[in-house]
Request: fold
Amino acid sequence: MKTPSWAFLLILICLRNSVAMAATTPVNFTLNLLDNGQTVPVAFRAWIPDGVDRIRGLIFNLPGSNLDTRNVTTNGSWQAVLPGMGFGIVGLRDTLGNVDISYWGNTAAEGQANIQAIMNAVASAYNHPEISNAPIMLDGISKGSLMATYIASMVPQRTIGYVADKGLGATVDPADPSPLSQMPGLVISGSEDQTFPPLENFLTYTGVLAFGGHIGEVIDWGVGHHATNPPIRYAFIAQAIRARYPKGQVPSLTPGNPLQLVNNTAPWLGEANTVDYQNGFDISTPFNPISWAHINPVAGNTVLDPTVDSWLPTQAMAMVFQTQNEGTFNTSTRPLQISVPNAVNTSVNNGQPISIAITLTGLTSNHIALYHDEDLIAVFNQSAGLLQYQYMPTENGLQTFIAIADYSDNGVIKQTGNYVVVGVSNLPEPGLSILLLTGAMARRRR
Reply:
C-alpha cells in the first residue's frame, strides 16, 4: 500500500481550509424594536463565518451618537478572527441620536424581547437556528458604551461581558446597576478624553463597583475621545469568553433553550488608577499614574480594595491590565515591543506556528518572560537585538501573549511590559495532522 505523498496531503489541507474560510455575505435587516410600548425601526447588518458548524455567539458592535457600525461586518481583522472564535458580528445605525438609547427597550422585558428578535433574525437569515439560543458579547464606543451597559443590565443571563470604550454609565434602572455583577465588564478611559473625562468615568466605575459590579478600568494613555487600539478589546473579549463560556458546549438547536453561561469563579483584582477629587470636581483632573500595578486573585486577597480596584475575569487579563495601565512610559513609545510578523489581518491560520518577535529599546534586561495567557512559555536572559519565539497553537480562537521585562533603575528592579492578541482558525484535525506526519516520515525513509 502506498503512503500518501506529502504534496498530496498538503493539497488536501489547503482545499479543506479554503472551503472553511470561504466568506459568507453580510445580511441587512430592519427591526421594529420596542420602546416604551411603541416601536422604533433600527437598521442592522450581520455576518457569520462560513465553515463553522455551530455558531457560539454574536458580538454586538455598538456605535456612537448618530454613527453607524454596520461596516464592521466587512472589517478584515474581524472576519479573520471570528472563524476561530466561532462567533458572528452585528453592527447597526444609531437611530435616535444624542444619548437616547431607549430604542433598546424601556424595561428589562422589552430589552429581552428586542435582543431575542435580533438573534432570531440572524438565525433565520443564515439558517443557523442555534443563534437564537446563543449568548452575546457587547462592544461599544462613546454612546455605544452606554448601550453596552444598558443592554447588559437587561439581559445579564445571556451577556458574556461588555466593553465600554470612552464612556460608561447607563443601566435600565438608573438607580440599580447590580445586574452588572453577573458578567465581567471593561471600561476603557482616555486620559485626555473631555467628552467622558477621567473623573466622570472613575466615579461611574466606582459606582458600579459599589453595587457589586465586576468591572475593570484600563487607561488609554494620551488618547482623547477616540476608539482604542484593537488589542485591548480583543484581549478582554478573549478572556471573558474563557471565564464564562461553558467548555465544550455550543448553543442548542432547539428553540427557547438559551445556552447557560457559567459564573466567573476565579476573577482577579488590579490596582486602579485613581482620580484625586478631594479639592473639587474638576473635569480636567487627570488619572494618577501607577508605574506597575499590583494584581491579586480575588480569593484570599488582603492587599487590594474590591470597592475601588479593578475586577478582571482571568489572571491573563490582570497581566494585560498591568501592561496597559503602566504609568512609567505613558507619554512615550513603550520600550518593550511584541508583535506577530506572520499574522495576516491579526490572524495566523491553517496550523502555522505563531511567530512572536520581541524587542527592548533604551533599557537592558537579563530577564524577559513571555506568557501565553497566564502560562509562562519562555524566558530570555538577554535583551539585545530581536528575540524570537515560535508558538504552536493547540486550539482555535483569540490567543493572548504577554511579555514582561525586568530592568534596573538606579539599583531598583522594575518591570515594563506589552502584549499582543492574534486569532487562530482552521487548525488541522488531530487525525489529519498525524496522517501528515506519517506521510512525511515515510517519505524520508524512502
User: Anything to note?
Assistant: The longest strand covers residues 397-409. Residues 108-126 form the longest helix (19 residues). The chain is about 25% helix and 25% strand.
